[in-house]
Amino acid sequence: MKVIQPSPTAASLGVYGNNPVNYYNGTVGVTIPIYEIKMSNQVLPVKLDYFSSGVRVADNASWVGLGWSLSAGGVITKSVKGGDDLFGTSSSQVGYYNADKLPNKFDVLSNDFFNLSSYNQNYLNDFDQGWIDSEPDIFHYNFANYSGKFVLDKQINGSLVYKDQANNLKMQYLQQTDNWLVTDGLGYRYYFNTRERVQNFYKTIDGGDIPNDSQIGAFDNYVINGNPLITMSWYLSSIVTPTEEVISFTYQTEPLRQSMSLISKSEEEYDQEKLVAQTATMSGKFSAKYHRYTGSKQLIYDVYLKQINFSEGSIIFNTTNRDDIEYLGTDKPQKLSQIVIKDISGNVLKKYSFNYSYFLSNTSETILTNDYTNRRRLKLDAVVELASNDQSKPPYILDYYNADDLPYKYTKAIDHWGYYNGKSSNNTLLPTKIIPSVEKFWNGADRSANQVNTEAIKGMLSSITYPTGGKTKFNYELNEYHNLKGDDQYVLQPQTVMANSMIGKYSEAFDLAVIDTTIVTLKGTFKKKRRFNIHWRLCSFV
Predict the structure, then answer these.
(1) What is the model's pTM?
(2) Which of 525, 389, 395, 386 minimizes the C-alpha distance to 471?
(3) Which end of the chain has fewer surrounding CB within 10 Å, N or C?
(4) Residue 525: CA atoms inside 13 Å, Cβ hemisphere, count?
(5) Cβ contacts of residue 164 below 8 Å, gap of 6+?
(6) 255 preceded by a cis bond (ω within 30 of 0)
(7) What is the pLDDT of residue 487?
(8) pLDDT single digits (tens) 458-486
(9) Rounded to whole angstroms, how far apart are CA atoms 463 and 456?
(10) DSSP reduced 3-state for 259
């Protein structure tokens, strides 16, 4: 299944809908207020938010730094699952939104394929060929005082919106213009008309990993000006109050800036083995085995908030170049450098400047052509308020844990959730897998979570010093989970096997699932045709 994510800046806003800040899930929100835009009976805050969920290895920083997001308007983002829901209306390729109704599951499950109706046969065949998208995408929203996520049902079912929480928002997808209109319970209308779009490129290799510095020209579906543009984010363009007061948002799309995402990778391994009762017999290689690598990379047509106009004045957002994200062409991706707040007459009321450096990765990974960006993540160091005469006030000062020792963006030393676990010997993404029920074991990567807190907190906010001189320090501890079921309750233990041969002894050490009283027999042949047999019994249970 292909998964396409929005740009880092859009994703930083969407994360709040996916992971609300509260003490139940162990996260705490840090906010730096900038300004409040007053409407008839609501307030639109402009502020910086920090989300303390940790740093995933594949996280790129937003335009205000790793872990931070600027709340100034809003966005609806989309995570593509399989195919783009909103793309394709022809018979050759149809997104989930425009596709026909799914076949009745009782008809499908109670009959074999050839006894199904011709409609069901055609539908399942088109799905199998990838011509019909059968899984809905996940949408995230964050604007004003609302955040959450939802899925959009098929048009043939009435374009219903299923939200993860009850609220009074009415969400309408306007297919003709590819925009959104959201109306809240007070009658405020939110128009999301500014689109950030991407082109998706993918590559599949059997038996060899995809190089981390692969450029889009090396991907399977690379066609200049030929790949369809997928809308991944819709930014808030205007708010219209019940009294018809308008707040408008202007975005910078020129000059055209095209940033590149990291390569998102997945692996599949298939093998076949004959198993008889409690005995596993292996002769040479398995009769069928292959290892497949799949990767995707997105070319993002960047969108940056430039100005907000409202009845009492305006807010201007200025940017400068950044050096931690790959890009295409000559114009670099941008970071927010300054916010200027003006009154209705254009007089400057105050400014905010943003000071940055970079988180760095100390790694022995292979040097690649794009390693300059792969070893850097944008780091927000301070936020400084300036008066109308440019006189600086005391700043917000931000410190982080292990800022010069973050993991390499493409390391395979990650746990099941994508966080760094320090297992640098991993050379695959596939985890070690044990299936005791059939006595099957795959020796793969150690994807377990690291129990040492110093690895998990790298790059996280350690303290904030306020303009008043006060200071808050942050201590973190790991999440825990218990009550493992099924195969997950088994652990690996190293085992060594000794066998006699005609010329001496043969020793082999490897990991094996320790399960209840299992007899295993290995048979093989040396290159010089000397045969050996190994036979042992395991009688321990974990």
Answers:
(1) 0.80
(2) 395
(3) N
(4) 6
(5) 148, 149, 150
(6) yes
(7) 58
(8) 999 999 999 999 999 988 887 776 666 66
(9) 16
(10) strand
